[in-house]
Design goal:
Rhopdopsin 7-helix transmembrane proteins
């Protein structure tokens, strides 16, 4: 079980990164997508390389006692920088300003990382310490400065992120606000982590021993803070993606009544190519819209535009909104045309109708209204009953 308190959060973050990998490959040029992916990858690296078994393995492989110390410090510094980068790109604004802030952030934290490795190379840390490196070498020249630099850099990032996220959360709502609040809590815990580390190191400077704050208190606080921060960053993005997916599937199902009404009028051989059941939702919507347009084209000679105008006028008289009245009128005309087409198996009707554009001019949204009217409108039901009566009276 040794090291599981580090490896479990590392694994969770790797899974989150893997879930984002397809989007990263498709949208590599998007700064926000890159920032999210880098944050998840760096955060998982922090926990993996900070685990005592990994620390011992890295020291053994490199042959340098405590080489893991500057490595972990640098990864933690990179995590602080990636948080700032993500927030810069997440907030939006002028592209030039975002690029300028990003360059400043990368440059500043790169200098911190370089100084950490330089100070470790100059200083001396011959005794391997897997859990208490900070306090054991708190009074060692150059190593002391390396520890102080990483704590200051981490604290600055935590303070900046706490202030900015809290300020931003006051102006937004929904999942974004929830994510920002989680991030505020996470970065405040980061400050608790930094306070515990500073207290333990400061105690060593004063000749006291508060190592327990660094070895027992700080690690679980860091794990929980990383969970809150990662969740805060990912939550709005996941909710946005799920919402978009839901809207796409909702559109697909709402188009169902119109699609089923028209599918019988399209000759089987001329229908659009079928797609597999596992295809993406947006592709299925596109296919369904194409099928509807094909059906409309085949029905064009049977459209009664006078019937449509009368149905629209009746809907407006009944108090319907203009958009709803138009959708109802289109649905009435489609329902009547389907039955007229069915009553003409030998296709004797010579098409002279105007081109059908009203339902397709605005795309799927208008088709959804027509589809809903086909299922719910009393006028459509009356049209179907009238058509059925006519058919029964003319055997």
């Amino acid at each position: 079980m040794k090291g599981l308190d580090f490896y479990i959060p590392a694994g969770v973050l790797v899974i989150a990164f893997t879930c984002k990998l397809p989007g990263l490959t498709r949208h590599w040029r998007d700064p926000l997508v890159r920032a999210v992916s880098v944050l998840l990858l760096v955060a998982s690296s922090v926990f993996f390389f900070a685990a005592p078994p990994t620390i011992a393995a890295v020291n053994r492989i490199t042959g340098i006692p405590n080489f893991s110390a500057p490595l972990v410090y640098c990864i933690l510094t990179a995590f602080s920088a990636s948080c700032l980068l993500l927030l810069i790109n997440w907030r939006g604004g002028p592209d030039e300003r975002a690029r300028s802030l990003s360059r400043w952030c990368v440059g500043s934290y790169s200098a911190v990382i370089l100084s950490q490795f330089s100070l470790f190379a100059i200083g001396g840390a011959p005794v391997e310490r897997l859990r208490d490196f900070d306090t054991y070498y708190a009074n060692t020249p150059f190593i002391r400065e390396m520890i102080l630099i990483y704590l200051v850099a981490h604290t600055v990032a935590a303070v900046v992120m706490t202030v900015l996220c809290r300020r931003w959360s006051l102006h937004v709502r929904g999942s974004l606000r929830s994510g920002l609040i989680l991030m505020v809590c996470g970065f405040m815990l980061n400050l608790v982590f930094d306070a515990a580390k500073f207290a333990a190191v400061g105690a060593r400077w004063a000749g006291q021993d508060l190592d327990v704050l660094s070895t027992a208190v700080a690690p679980p606080v860091a794990s929980f803070s990383a969970l809150l921060i990662g969740t805060g960053f990912v939550l709005p993005l996941v909710v946005q993606q799920l919402s978009a997916l839901y809207q796409t599937w909702a559109t697909y199902h709402r188009l169902g009544p119109l699609w089923r009404e028209l599918r019988t009028v399209v000759p089987h051989g001329s229908r659009a190519v079928r797609i597999s059941w596992w295809s993406a939702a947006d592709l299925r919507v596109t296919q369904r819209v194409a099928d509807i347009h094909d059906g409309i084209l085949h029905l064009d000679p049977y459209f009664d535009h006078g019937l449509r105008d009368r149905a629209r006028a009746a809907a407006l008289t009944a108090g319907a909104a203009i958009a709803q009245a138009e959708a109802t009128a289109e649905a009435v005309m489609v329902a009547a045309a389907v039955r007229a087409r069915a009553a003409d198996p030998e296709e004797k009707v010579i098409g002279s109708a105007d081109a059908y554009t009203s339902a397709t001019a605005q795309g799927p949204r208008d088709l959804v209204r027509i589809s809903r009217a086909l299922r719910r409108s009393p006028a459509v039901a009356e049209t179907r009953r009238s058509a059925a009566s006519t058919e029964s009276s003319h055997p």
